[in-house]
Amino acid sequence: MVEDAPDHSLRVRMLGAFSLTVSGVPVLSWRAGKARTLFQYLVSHRERLVLRETLYQALWPGREWSPSSSSLKVAVHAVRRALGVGPRGCERCGIGIEHRDFGYVLHADNVWVDIEDFEAKIDAGRAADRRGEVRAALSRYREAMELYRGDFLQEESGDWIVEHREWYRSLALHALTRLSAVALDHDDVGDVLRWSARLIELEPYREETYRLLINMCGRLGDRKAAKAWFDRCVSRLRGDLGVEPSPATVQAYVSAARGRTSIVPRPARRSA
């Protein structure tokens, strides 16, 4: 796979826990407190000029930016040290943070970033779907979900992070819904369970997915698992939202508990 290529100067993971390696060496120390957040923002907007005011609001939300402030310069200096490059960058490794009159640009010629690879695979899957090449589409969606190790910067906070997080989550939901639907069409119970369980991780209140899981467990004769999914559904709907499960969900569980399964509807197809 692309991300395993050994010659990337920079390798960045942002889906799940954040990690950065430079020439194979993990970066663990960032010195300045906002340096890591600054790098995360710049790499998410790679090769684009980001205004100083925008960076300042991302790093210090709620504080008014002043041209006389040196906080951003200190953070940029710390990022350069973490990357092992100077103010003019590193021509050999193709990495640099360029300062322009109104902001900064992160240049990285030889870099792999998981969010870029993830989005490219989702786009390729959707393009294959439009051409009617279902097998190729599913392959791209599976590869994308291998990259999706958790929400975007799941251990971080910030308005800009939440916006990116929702976007990548919507792409993952599209892929998972498609994978689950095709598995159901092909009566592949194992894959239906696999992809539906991941859907629940991203959308814990999606009742139709609980019904699908309950039905599949009932088909396998696994009443214990069917009860576990039903109990989780009830707990989340009742405990978090103050609503009861629908009669269709209750009936799905009753059927599974009796060793019967109801007709399973095809999951609704999502667009991202």
Indicate the radius of gyration in whole angstroms: 23 Å
So what's the CATH class of the domain at 31-109? Answer: Mainly Alpha
Q: Which class best fits the helix and strand makeup?
A: alpha+beta
Query: N-to-C terminal Cα separation, in Å?
Result: 24 Å
Please tell me the CATH architecture of the domain at 31-109 by its name: Orthogonal Bundle
- Side-by-side strand order of the widest sheet: 3-2-1-7
What fraction, in percent, of the residue positions are helical?
Answer: 40-55%
Principal-axes shape call: elongated
Helix and strand element order: EEEHEHHEEEHHHHHHH
Enter the CATH topology name of the domain at 31-109: Arc Repressor Mutant, subunit A
The number of helices is: 10
The major beta sheet can be summarized as: 4 strands, mixed
What are the segments in which pLDDT stays under 50 over at least 5 consecutive residues? 1-6
What's the number of extended β-strand segments?
Answer: 7
Q: Strand fraction band?
A: 5-15%
The CATH superfamily of the domain at 31-109 turns out to be Winged helix-like DNA-binding domain superfamily/Winged helix DNA-binding domain
Overall pLDDT score: 88
